[in-house]
Amino acid sequence: MQLFLIAVLPLSLLVLIITFGSLALHHEAMRSLVAERDLHAIQSAAISLYRDIDHRTKTIELISRFAEGSENFQSTIAQFQDELSIFDGGLALIDANGTPTFYFDQSPVQQFSSSFDWQKIVSSMRSSEAGTAILFPNHPINGDLYTPIASHFDPGMVVIGLFSPEKILSTGLSILLTENHANFRVLDEQNNVLFQTNQGSNSESVLDYQELQNILDEKNGIDFLKTSKGEVVITAAKIETVGWILVDEESWQDIASPLLRITQNAPLIIVPLLGFSILVLWFGFRQIVQPLQELGSKAGDMAKSDFKSIKEPVGGVPEIVHLQNSMMGMAEKLKHAKNNLQNYLGAITDGIENERRNVARELHDDTLQSLIALGQNTQYAKHWNKDPKVEKSLDQISHLTDQGIVNLRRLVQGLRPIYIEDLGLTTALSMLASGYPNPTGIKVHFHQNGNERRFSSNVEMTLYRITQEALSNAFRHASAQNAWISIDFRERDVILEVRDDGIGFEVPQESSHYASGGHFGLLGMYERSELIGAKLNVQSVKGEGTRVTVQCFDSSSKKRLENIG
């Protein structure tokens, strides 16, 4: 148990934490690597597309410069015959009045050039740097999108060319499209999809133009989006000339090879080890630790003379069951030994009481009667005596005789209280409170509750002796001002209490410690109470006095309580 608790379980937890921590770091590094790779690729594609568009812009500017000093625009166009293929939407010349005057491959560009106020556009272009080409927003023509590029030259004439974004993107992204996991989209500023791969976009991870612009501005073109199919790496790059945004959406987890995923999951073998450790700890606690704790508690009860508790099964492994059986056998032996000891103590107590009775009888019937006779004869002698000197001696003899009779009667009463047999326990306790030798001057108070009933002579004598010993301890050790004796007759038991307001003392926790602490009087009271089946309780607080309580059941009530238990 200690090995698993101190070594195996913490080590397993540490390895598991390190394993999952390493996996988390590995996943973070993997997705960062994929994101950087995709970003580098898409930025390279954006640069390539920028160059293609810039080439078309420069071509339009070059045509406009050549056309500026030429009287025949058609001859000028002929010089660029090989270059004009990049304008797959056609080329047109707009005169100073805003009217198209020449078309090259005129089908799309003719529809486009006739729909603008070119004079206004030329005025706007003149306010900027002369000869600068501008790109118009993408324009739909016959269901297809075209990007117009225009450049003006004096006197207010404009050359305009159209090219298809889809074709230029297909060519510029041809290298990236060889990736199996790539999912590309290109958006313009109007959030139109100019191009996307055949795989289509994941409906859970589609972002619009503004969201992509935020990624470019705030996250340098990289973001991660969680979907039901896993985490998607989103990389974006912008072609500033036309305002297009290239987007690559890719699940980075799909890139890892099956072997790599198996390698990542290999450390999870620690999980069964951890589960086994927890199972061992649970088994050890339920089958070893907990039964041993219960058995230890029952052993403590056995030390308090509760021999029934040890018979209740605690379960656990067979070794603990065997140990409990051994302790049950030991409990039976202890119970038998305790019964024998109680019988022996009972016999000794009975012998002492019988001896006290005999001594009291001898003192009462012989010695006391002799002293009484001596006193009477002394009185006779005083009556017949005429000598003053003899009379003084006779007075001294009479006084000593009377004092001896009083002391002897008190001694006889202590050895065998005559009131307890004839008048009962209550009267005997009341006489004890008023007539017990009290050299310290402590006031003893007596109180009775309930209707008095008689017990067996053995029980009454035991309660009397316990009271006698408690009072003796209070007189000798308590330094008290008052002592109280109270007896409470209840329906099924009687409670006797002796308390004082003295200095108190520290009561041993167990009755077995009475003798080692020098509390032989308490030990005698405890043994006497056990002989009659009573419960003795001693409570004391330093500075607040001592309380001795005895609870004794009568025979019928005790039997009923045993049956209930």
Would you spell out the secondary-structure blueprint of this structure?
Layout: H1 2-68, H2 73-79, E1 90-94, E2 100-104, H3 106-113, H4 118-126, E3 134-135, E4 139-141, E5 144-153, E6 157-163, H5 165-172, E7 184-187, E8 193-196, H6 209-218, E9 222-227, E10 230-239, E11 244-251, H7 258-265, H8 270-303, H9 318-384, H10 388-415, H11 418-422, H12 425-435, E12 443-449, H13 457-478, E13 482-489, E14 493-500, H14 520-531, E15 535-541, E16 545-553, H15 555-564
Low-confidence stretches: 556-565
Our measurement of the CA-to-CA distance between the termini, rounded to an integer number of angstroms, reads 38 Å
Largest sheet: 6 strands, antiparallel
Note the total helix count: 15
Residue-averaged pLDDT:
78
Query: Helicity level, as a percent range?
Result: 40-55%
Cα shape: rod-shaped
State the domain count. 3
Q: By helix and strand content, what is the structural category?
A: alpha+beta
Strand content: 15-25%
Query: What is the gyration radius calculated from CA atoms?
Result: 59 Å
Number of strands: 16
Oligomerization: single chain
